[in-house]
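Limitations

Structures in this collection are predictions, not experimental determinations, and the ligand pose is part of the prediction. Treat each record accordingly. The example that follows, with NAP as the small molecule, is included so readers can see exactly what is and is not provided: the inputs are given verbatim, and the output is the predicted complex.
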Amino acid sequence: MKIPFAIIVAAALAGSIAHAQARPTPGQPVILVTGSTSGLGREVALRLAAGGAHVIVHGRDSARGAEVVREIEQAGKGSARFYAADFASLAQVRQFGATILKDYSRLDVLINNAGIGSVPADRQLTAEGAEIRMQVNYLSGVLLTRLLLPQLLASAPARIVNVSSLAASPVDFDDVMMAKNFSPLRAYGQSKLAQVMFTFDLAHELEGKGVTVNALHPATLMPTGMVAKAGYQPQATIDEGAKAVLQLVQAPDMGSGQYFIGLKAGRAHQQAYDAEARARLKRLSEDLTGIAHSTH
Ligand SMILES: NC(=O)c1ccc[n+]([C@@H]2O[C@H](COP(=O)([O-])OP(=O)(O)OC[C@H]3O[C@@H](n4cnc5c(N)ncnc54)[C@H](OP(=O)(O)O)[C@@H]3O)[C@@H](O)[C@H]2O)c1
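Predicted complex:
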């Protein structure tokens, strides 16, 4: 009997879809790495899968995402699935969070890594009207963390790692979205310091609950997409940055509420230690993301 071509195509597609939708096996750690379609996040995703984890790969570009998943599958250790969500849209972040909660029954580690640097060099606003770096690098990570926190708490011991940067600029509460005074580097620095302030607050809130949260500057000027786009000469390797992230994911006794510079605990910008500034940022973030801050 001759099998119709349409059935062969459908069967092949079904096979590839099933293949692309790998599920974690019982006991396999589940780790979400945002922005894992390139650069640091991609390397971290590959290494975590090589160690046996199920990695939730995230980015905007399905082709790049599928490539990371394929590489993980070909390596034959761990497993992965790709999800697309544009962090310049809070609606997409909400949808992404809801999908992860639906598709997974546990989450051991959340790595908030997705980000954009000093390019675009002009002031761009998101659909929600926020300066694009503030939203992609900070607000979307806060929203995703809040959405996934119940899952992390239910999976405790669990960890959150916020990939920040040494490039910190104090948050200007009179002009957070930089309508009056814009600079792409300062916009990047504000968003990166905001991540550290969020880390310190969240660590306090999660004390004794089995979920730790730390932030880090992975390495200075790694040869990644954002560094290439900005035209900077790389000074570090992606290996250095990946090791620093993996330490916070895997090493025992990393504590919580700390800021690391590479592999060592360091001191963040002074605004991160200003409780009033952190409280102000927290209220603003709740308003902008529309999410309640309390897990109690
Ligand atoms: N490179 C360095 O030297 C350095 C130093 C300090 C800190 N960092 C931090 O390291 C993290 C990773 O950056 P990288 O250097 O690896 O840069 P990268 O190669 O440009 O990677 C950025 C990742 O974020 C994703 N992303 C960008 N915009 C997004 C959006 N609107 N929605 C969803 N995902 C988005 C990208 O996905 P797409 O495939 O969709 O573009 C990509 O996967 C960032 O948080 C950065 O601030 C980097």
